[in-house]
Amino acid sequence: MQELLYVLGAVLVAGIVITITAVRAGAILGTVERALTKGSTALILFTMCFVSAEIVLRHFFNSPIQGHLELTSLFVPVIVFAAVSYTHSQNAHVGMTLVVDNLPKSIQNKVEFVTMFFTVLTCAVLAYFSFKFTYAEWEIDNVTETPPYWLTWPSAAFIPLGYGLLAIRSILKMVNLAAPDYYPQDDVILADELLAPESKSNETPA
């Protein structure tokens, strides 16, 4: 219980600071999100090549890569949590919006604000306890069960990082919903907006 109170206090302080510096915080977060997403994408491509190489070596040369299964498993948290905040900024997470979409716009904003509030609290708690887990993994130098014994904490570190960034992005979304003129969320460029100029250029006049 005491730990949860500490987390709530930290969320309150972080929320105040982020609200005061919303435009600057958004710009920094946007840069971090895009960099991590590019890294996540590169890791996906590397994982595909790595797994393909392992299959070829195993079946055609009888020379499997040691620890390939454990290593690719360690890649999963990195791939997911490095890009989770950017995905949230793009409103690209799977969601059930049938009811909300049919509500008046003012009520939609209130519902989304409350949703973001609980998202911040949930992600902050998950970030804290996943950080504790990662620290424990680092403290004991925990490794995978088979050679070459990969360290597990670098992969685990992306879990609190992802949840932390997700909480910050949710706070910024709350600020945008409450005061769109104060924080217009200019640091977020939706994928649809990027594709819009290209689609317009491909249109031929009738």
Q: For the terminal residues, how far apart are their CA atoms?
A: 67 Å
- Helices, by number, come to 8
The helix/strand order is HHHHHHHH
Please indicate the percent range of residues in DSSP E strands (runs of 2 or more).
Answer: under 5%
Q: Return residue spans where pLDDT drops below 50 for at least 5 consecutive residues.
A: none
Helix content: over 70%
Which structural class is indicated by helix and strand composition?
mainly alpha
Overall shape: it is globular
The biggest beta sheet is recorded as: none
Question: Would you give an account of this structure?
Answer:
With 206 residues, this protein is an all-alpha fold. The protein has helices at residues 2-20, 22-61, 68-89, 98-101, 105-139, 153-156, 158-178, 191-202. The termini are far apart.
Summarize the structure.
By secondary structure, the protein is mostly helical. 76% of the residues lie in helices and 0% in strands.
Highlighted features:
single chain; 206 residues; mainly alpha; 8 helices; 76% helix; 0% strand
Reconstruct the topology from this structure:
Layout: H1 2-20, H2 22-61, H3 68-89, H4 98-101, H5 105-139, H6 153-156, H7 158-178, H8 191-202
Helix pairs in contact: 1-5, 1-7, 2-3, 2-7, 3-7, 5-7
